[in-house]
Design goal:
88 residues; mainly alpha; Helix Hairpins; 4 helices; 0% strand
């Protein structure tokens, strides 16, 4: 679970304007951070299947958001991929 401080930092790094909190870029960045934290948890607790299912749902959601961004804003898609160090 992300704290308010971490969320506000992620929003500040990826927002497109001052009032932006829900754009695709921000949602992808938040989901990526949650995926990283949950992956670390699963390395310590390999039998936690409930969390594994949640991780798979988050990965699927991020993949769909990335597909949307690639289709509608290819330039920002490329920037975000490089910034978050994700595979294409």
């Amino acid at each position: 679970m992300l704290t308010k401080r971490v969320k506000s930092r992620i929003i500040g790094e990826h927002k497109t304007n001052d009032k932006d909190t829900g754009s695709a870029q921000v949602q992808i960045a938040m989901t990526s951070r949650q995926i990283d934290e949950l992956a670390a948890h699963l390395k310590k607790n390999p039998k936690d299947n409930h969390s594994r299912r949640g991780l798979l749902k988050m990965v699927s959601r991020r993949r769909k958001l990335l597909a949307y961004l690639k289709k509608h804003e290819p330039s920002s898609y490329e920037k975000l991929i490089k910034k978050l160090e994700l595979k294409k």
